[in-house]
Amino acid sequence: MSGQIVTTTITYLVLTERPARFPPMPTSPRLALMKAEAIPLHFYRYLYATVGVDWLWVERLDMSDEALAAEVQREDVEVTVLYANGTPAGYYELDFATPESPNLAYFGITPEWTGAKIGPWLLGCAIRDAFSGAATQLTVNTCTCDHPAALPLYQRLGFQPVRQVRRDVPVPPHMRVPSHIAARIER
């Protein structure tokens, strides 16, 4: 460990019904969604690291192949990849271990596409997929290391906060700490 610790506040949210309306698909760039079946671990690692590089996503960075496969290649986990102009631009991961209460485990946009106004549409797609089966609610969490627009976006689409917890996140020695987070590192 590098000895660096970031203290973050995690907000847990729940959406208790399928929204009546969803954000429209942007007209530009060209967007496509594709569900990745038995996602190859190298591709999942690329998505996770690329989307999470600015938000201190560390939990899955150093997982073994076996541990990561157990998380992302289960039959009750769906990983959907967003493509913009033909290149990977983000993804979302839905965990249906509890079909009536799936969890939006991961959701994000790659740095190249952050700020392109495609996040609301992508989140709407994740919500639509989550409620396509037996779901009566959808859960998600975000933290103060995530994009500052994440919590307001979840709330705008109907999620309600249900609890908050503080957590210390050890920063792996090989990971660059994003500048917007660096000010909060305890030494």
SSE ordering: EEHHEEEHEHEHE
What is the averaged pLDDT score?
93
User: What is the rounded Rg?
Assistant: 16 Å
Q: In this structure, how is the largest beta sheet organized?
A: 8 strands, mixed
The total count of helices amounts to 5
CATH topology: Aminopeptidase
Total discrete domains: 1
Note poorly predicted spans. Answer: none
- By DSSP, the count of extended strands is 8
The CATH C-level class name: Alpha Beta
Q: Termini distance? A: 12 Å
Structure class:
alpha+beta
CATH architecture, please?
A: 3-Layer(aba) Sandwich
Overview of this structure, please?
- The structure is a single chain.
- The protein has 187 residues and is α+β, with helices and mostly antiparallel strands.
- The protein has a single domain, classed as Gcn5-related N-acetyltransferase (GNAT) (Aminopeptidase, 3-Layer(aba) Sandwich).
- The protein is globular, with a radius of gyration of 16 Å.
Helices and strands in order, then pairings?
Layout lengths: L4 E11 L15 E6 L4 H12 L12 H8 L4 E8 L2 E9 L7 E7 L9 H12 L7 E6 L6 H7 L3 E11 L8 H4 L2 E2 L1
Give a summary of the structure in a few sentences.
With 187 residues, the protein is of the alpha+beta class. Helix content is 23%, strand content 32%.
